[in-house]
Design goal:
The radius of gyration is 22 Å and the shape is globular. It is about 20% helix and about 30% strand. Helix 1 packs across helix 2.
Length: about 300
């Protein structure tokens, strides 16, 4: 069943484009509204409007939304390369391989950490949406490294609070193009959805506060290996911030990386690895730290750079 929404245009949206204004009004992505408008599903005062038409304050908007899709289910399937680094009654810490999402989501048909844990007989907390139970933070499917999930309800609550209050230490290693100047510093720039491409994020005025600290660990002629400490945890934060300062992660073609360098390093994804995770254990408050070694593809890229620089 489709869902018909009828509502007046607020004064604050006067003159805005249909796609931008209705995205704010309905809580949808701009590309979703644009698609609805192109399909004739958006009417203003009874007449169809295009995505770039302008809204009129007080006008009556009618939007026909498609039927909601069912929530994706967790399927217990073994995940090749998923390693359990530690587990106890409260937490399970894993080393996530490339091409694995953390949990099921619409449109994702590949393996997931949650499905892999289920296949391994690891029972996680029941808190959270069905497909995200026990999940307290995420890594992109194309980002490897260490992450934690909650097994007990107490751990879920404690870890969610720790990530929200930023008491968790998250350290990433990234191979970025060129040489950041200064070699150690902080990138403080707000991030939100890209204004034109819904699948990307960008530094935009009025975005969510986002802070990335970095330190150069090793410099090559073509790139630099940096140690990154996140103060905030926005989606794609490291990738967006280094792209914004014109030092994108090597191999990250989505955010402007050089495809020639990517081919030379045989990189099929961004060189970005969740190297270390530290937090207070939910059971006793003791500080615990877990680390992950570089996977083969990232190590190979470093070996190529070192060999060419020698």
């Amino acid at each position: 069943m489709s869902d018909l929404r009828m509502l007046p245009v607020p004064d604050g949206l006067e003159g805005m484009r249909v796609d931008a204004g209705l995205a704010k009004l309905l809580g949808l992505s701009r590309s979703t509204v644009a698609g609805l408008a192109e399909s004739g599903e958006v009417l203003l005062d009874g007449a169809p409007v295009g995505k770039s038409d302008r809204l009129i304050a007080g006008g009556l908007v009618e939007v026909t939304l498609p039927a909601a899709r069912p929530e994706p289910e967790v399927v217990a399937v073994p995940v090749e390369g998923l390693r359990i680094l530690h587990q106890d009654d409260d937490i399970v810490v894993v080393d996530k391989p490339i091409g694995v999402a953390v949990h099921p989501s619409p449109g994702w048909e590949g393996p997931t950490v949650i499905g892999g844990l289920a296949a391994a007989g690891v029972q996680i907390a029941t808190s959270g949406a069905a497909e995200r139970q026990g999940v307290v933070h995420r890594l992109d499917a194309g980002t490897t490294g260490v992450m934690v999930a909650a097994k007990s309800e107490h751990a879920y609550t404690a870890l969610k609070r720790a990530f929200k209050e930023r008491t968790v230490e998250k350290r990433y290693h990234a191979l970025v193009q060129g040489h950041p100047d200064p070699s150690s510093g902080t990138i403080d720039a707000p991030i939100d959805r890209h204004p034109k491409h819904d699948y990307k994020f960008a530094v935009v005025s009025g975005g969510k506060p986002s802070i990335t600290h970095y330190e150069t660990v090793e410099a090559f002629r073509a790139a630099s290996l940096v140690d990154v400490k996140l103060e905030t945890g926005r989606t794609h934060q490291i990738r967006v911030h280094f792209s914004a300062v014109r030092h994108p992660c090597a191999g990250d073609l989505t955010y402007g990386a050089d495809p020639v360098l990517a081919r030379r390093l045989q990189l099929g994804r961004q060189w970005l690895h969740a190297r270390m995770l530290g937090f207070e254990h939910p059971a006793d408050g003791q500080w615990v730290t877990f680390t992950s070694d570089y996977p083969d593809d990232l190590q190979h890229a470093l070996d190529v750079l070192r060999e060419q620089d020698s």
